[in-house]
C-alpha cells in the first residue's frame, strides 16, 4: 500500500461533503474539489487541512504536501498532472492563503 493510501486512512471521513470550494482573499470561488472518484483523496486532504489550520495557509500547504506523499514527487516531476498538489506548491511558494467553504451533501 502506498504512503498516500496509508495517510488517507488516518484522515477524517468525507461522506458528509459534496465538495470543498477554495476561495481567494475577495471570496471568489477559484475551484471546487468534488466528492467524486478521482478527487476524493484530495478532498480528504483539503478537508483535514481546513479543520486543522482553518484555511489553506502556507503551513497547511506544507502539511498537505507531506500527506500527498509520493504524489508530491510526481507532481513536481510532472507539473499539471496533479492540479490539487500544484496548487499547494504554488501557495507555499507565493506565501498565499485560500479560504475554504464546505459544501455539505444532503
Describe the structure.
The chain has 106 residues and is of the alpha+beta class. It is 49% helix and 18% strand. It is built from five helices and three strands. Strands 2-1-3 form a three-stranded antiparallel β-sheet, with helices on one face. Strand 1 and strand 2 form a beta hairpin. The radius of gyration is 13 Å and the shape is globular.
Q: What is the topology?
A:
Layout: H1 3-9, E1 17-23, E2 29-34, H2 40-53, H3 58-68, H4 70-77, H5 83-94, E3 99-104
Antiparallel strand pairs: 1-2, 1-3
Number of helices: 5
Poorly predicted runs: none
Query: Per DSSP, what share of the residues sits in E-state strands of 2 or more residues?
Result: 15-25%
Can you give the helix content as a percent range? Answer: 40-55%
Basic shape: globular
Q: State the major sheet.
A: 3 strands, antiparallel
Strand order of the largest sheet: 2-1-3
Q: What is the arithmetic mean of pLDDT?
A: 97
| CA-atom Rg in angstroms | 13 Å
